[in-house]
């Protein structure tokens, strides 16, 4: 009998999607750019025809590789959730939760690199869409790098769990969600979106109720290390805003209302963005789509990526108590003051020369070239 050819291939594994489904195996799925929300069986979600196929590869060979991991990772996630619930009723210490999760960190990172969002980014690196599979395989098969990346997150990041008692967390088509906790060191064109670097928060989806959180830097006050943090609806929405802005095409949720509330916060950006130079002309250097948690950093990033530095002149001679030039109706000191200060420190010295200084930076400043990133353990250059 001929071997079955899997045409519809999931870029987020079914064994993970089921933890966001209801008792009837249904999830609510959203097309993030159009805002359309609909119900579907989780087995039909986060799927694309021939996702991992390429004429140069043996039929289904990539799908078979991922299937081996999927054969045990679903049960592993269930054990992690069971351990969290045991901790909540006092049957085990919180350290057991981290222990249960840490042994599968490499698999979580592999699932991140195979995700739909990363495949979208890889398309921008190749002229032929199918060639994105080769970019993905290069990442997934780099075992030493993934191993060191996993060790860095486990050993150098704080760990916690966040909980939505009403199953309101969403899941993006990037699988893992990363959030910058500061704008420093965000000028890399690398595909791990700063996992392993300082001042970032990594969100690992377990279910609509639980996310695991690894972080370095100042997290929101409601996320405390070494405990299960129960979030209110406002806090859940803040986390979901970060998650949905890691998406490119879709996200899903156990609940329709949580999706609809957060879709209005989605901002579509290309995987590649260019930075405005000193004369207002956009430079060719690309910046990854970035997600920041704190308003100050979001504003600074917008100043750097969307507003040409010569337009910053409108902020000159503005008193701290004057109305902010961005027309927010707030005082300058309560609006763009800190963000502009951050942006100017980063880019102003280079804007006049029309140079982009971040492609190759001194290791002493906690940054390295893209090529070096792939070759050395993360913790050796991250400054953690």
Give an account of the 3D structure:
The protein is of the alpha+beta class and 384 residues long. The protein folds into two domains: 8-263, no CATH class; 278-382, no CATH class. Helix content is 36%, strand content 16%. It has 13 helices and 13 strands. The strands form four sheets. The protein has a five-stranded mixed β-sheet, with helices on both faces. The protein has a four-stranded antiparallel β-sheet with strand order 3-2-11-6, covered by helices on one side. Strands 1-4 form a two-stranded antiparallel sheet. β2 and β3 (36-41) form a beta hairpin. It is globular and about 70 Å long. The model is unreliable at 274-286 and 352-384 (pLDDT under 50).
């Amino acid at each position: 009998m001929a071997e079955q050819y899997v045409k519809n291939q999931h870029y987020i594994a079914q064994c993970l999607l089921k933890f966001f489904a209801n008792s009837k195996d249904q999830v609510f799925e959203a097309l993030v750019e159009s805002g359309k929300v609909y119900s579907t069986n989780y087995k039909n979600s986060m799927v694309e025809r021939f996702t991992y196929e390429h004429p140069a590869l043996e039929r289904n060979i990539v799908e078979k590789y991922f299937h081996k991991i999927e054969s045990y990772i679903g049960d592993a996630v269930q054990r992690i959730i069971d351990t969290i619930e045991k901790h909540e009723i006092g049957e085990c210490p919180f350290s057991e939760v981290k222990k249960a999760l840490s042994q599968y960190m490499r698999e979580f990172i592999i699932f991140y690199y195979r995700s739909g969002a990363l495949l979208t980014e890889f398309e921008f690196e190749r002229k032929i869409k199918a060639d994105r599979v080769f970019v993905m395989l290069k990442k997934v098969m780099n075992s030493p790098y993934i191993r060191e990346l996993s060790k860095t997150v486990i050993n150098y990041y704080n760990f916690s769990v966040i909980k939505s008692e009403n199953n309101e967390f969403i899941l993006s088509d990037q699988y893992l969600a990363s959030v910058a906790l500061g704008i420093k060191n965000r000028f890399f064109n690398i595909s791990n979106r700063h996992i392993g670097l300082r001042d970032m928060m990594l969100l690992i989806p377990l279910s609509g109720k639980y996310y695991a959180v690894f972080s370095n830097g100042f997290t929101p006050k409601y996320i405390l290390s070494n405990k299960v943090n129960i979030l209110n609806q406002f806090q859940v929405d803040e986390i979901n805003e970060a998650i949905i802005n890691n998406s490119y095409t879709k996200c899903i949720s156990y609940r329709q209302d949580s999706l609809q509330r957060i879709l209005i916060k989605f901002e579509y950006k290309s995987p590649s963005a260019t930075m405005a130079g000193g004369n207002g002309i956009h430079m060719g250097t690309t910046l990854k789509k970035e997600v920041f948690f704190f308003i100050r950093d979001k504003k600074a990033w917008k100043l750097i990526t969307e507003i040409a530095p010569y337009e910053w002149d409108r902020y000159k001679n503005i008193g701290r108590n004057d109305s902010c030039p961005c027309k927010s109706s707030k005082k300058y000191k309560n609006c763009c003051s800190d963000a502009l200060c951050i942006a100017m420190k980063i880019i102003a010295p280079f804007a006049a020369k029309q140079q982009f200084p971040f492609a190759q930076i001194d290791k002493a400043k906690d940054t390295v070239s893209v090529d070096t990133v792939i070759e050395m353990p993360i913790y050796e250059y991250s400054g953690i």
